[in-house]
Amino acid sequence: MAKKADIPVAKNQTIEAEFEDVTHDGQGVAKADGYPLFVPGALPGERGTVRVLKTNKSYGYGKLLELAVESPDRRIPPCPVYHQCGGCQLQHMSYAAQLRMKEKHVRDCLQRIGKIAHADIRPIIGMGDPWRYRNKVQVPVGMKDGELVAGFYRERTHKIINMDRCLIQMEKTDEVVQKVKELCGNLQIPPYDEERHEGVLRHIMVRYGLATREIMVVLITRTDEIPNRKKLVRGIVEAFPDVKSIVQNINPKRTNVILGEETRVLWGRDVIYDKIGDIRFAISAQSFYQVNPVQTRVLYEKALEYAGLTGEETVIDAYCGIGTIALFLAGRAKKIYGVEVVPEAVADAKRNAELNGIRNAEFAVGKAETVMEQWYEAGLRPDCIVVDPPRKGCEPSLLETILKMSPQRVVYVSCNPATLARDLRILEDGGYRTEAVQPVDMFPQTKHVEAVVRMTLKEQEI
Ligand code: SAH
């Protein structure tokens, strides 16, 4: 490890740097006499002037002051607030370069962390149009110079920056937010003041069902009462005939958590509907629902293909959320069991099964690692297990239960290539072979990447 004296650069020093690589979250990597410097916004192949901001033992951080040589992948970020918002990290690179970088990240993790050399890693599936894909938006509301503003918190602060449009949001959700903002301003509905814990309107949330065009508006308030509530509701409904649900969610607490516990319908239904493939989903204000419906379908089709079902199989969908993958697979399976830790999501899953006339799906509330162990003890031996865990990956005990259940197939859907690779290694050591890996870009312009993996139980050697 380098001693202080060995570090070739010092804080506040200005150097000429050449960028060799980019990290998976969009920071350029330059080497100063072999010492890596991470510089946000720089791209491989670029050269420029960098100020050293911080030096650690084995790497440091810098700020790009000026570019001498630009990469052909460099783009001018189309969003005017790209640098203040922090929601997107990759708008300064071409979409082709984003895809290349994400695919490489999956490949690198599998090789370095998973030590998986043999898997067939397919070219990443990107979007034809990598903008305007999100179906849900939630914006904080505040007051600036006597005007109601809504937009986003400046990165790492609680200062609200007003925003007229967000280029990764579907146009419709943008339009609705702007209208609600205008109506609330005109009707003098007081925005929430975080410091004093006063005022009414905390957040505006809009959800849009791309397949059905149905719109939900959620007004998140500190108080029970909304001044001029009826006029506000009328204004929204008159402006957007596709609004099918307006609900109020009350969050009286001093907290960063957006939604409170109580939700009441102000107008229309408590849910909107959407479809992925042939499956209909009822989505409430609190439901977890994938935000990129176009790529979600691509991802689930891949999961279905990798599951290789014939109609005779028993399947487990672990970390099932509102049952999306389970319901997508149900038509090709004999029986499917879903397990999820959030009780409201499981209630949605059951309701969605009913909505689609699906009778071979059963859902349980609980930790996947606990419930699956109970199922194992009760004798359940599925043919296929699908897991779709949060970023931290699967609990080791759940992987052990998978090995004991020894299904022919495991389909792993992951939003974090590093934990994916770690978990695949454990399953490989337990007798599975990673056959195919399909990265999918669910979140263009951001650093996130999703992947779906097919693993098959190796033939027992005698
Ligand atoms: N498969 C779903 C949701 C995936 S997100 C979809 O595609 O829509 C991951 C889910 O895992 C979340 O719903 C989260 O609530 C749930 N979860 C997190 N930890 C869990 C655990 N230990 N056991 C079961 N579910 C868990």
Describe this structure in words.
It is a single chain. This protein has 3 domains: 4-69, Nucleic acid-binding proteins (OB fold (Dihydrolipoamide Acetyltransferase, E2P)); 99-128 and 292-457, Vaccinia Virus protein VP39 (Rossmann fold, 3-Layer(aba) Sandwich); 136-276, Beta Barrel (OB fold (Dihydrolipoamide Acetyltransferase, E2P)). The strands form 4 sheets. Strands 6-21-22-20-19-16-17-18 form an 8-stranded mixed beta sheet, sandwiched between helices. It has a 7-stranded mixed beta sheet with strand order 9-8-7-10-11-12-13, with helices on one face. With 462 residues, it is of the alpha/beta class. Helices cover 25% and strands 32% of the residues. Strand 8 (147-153) and strand 9 form a beta hairpin. The model has no long low-confidence stretch (mean pLDDT 95). Helix 3 runs antiparallel to helix 4 (229-239) and helix 8 packs parallel to helix 9 (396-405). The chain binds S-adenosyl-L-homocysteine (SAH).
Brief summary of the model shown:
The chain is of the alpha/beta class and 462 residues long. The chain has helices at 82-85, 95-112, 171-186, 229-239, 293-307, 324-330, 343-355, 368-377, 396-405, 417-429, and strands at residues 14-22, 27-32, 35-40, 47-55, 60-69, 120-121, 136-144, 147-153, 160-162, 201-208, 215-221, 243-250, 262-268, 271-276, 279-284, 314-318, 335-340, 361-365, 384-387, 409-414, 432-440, 450-457. A hairpin with a 6-residue loop joins β8 (147-153) and β9 (160-162).
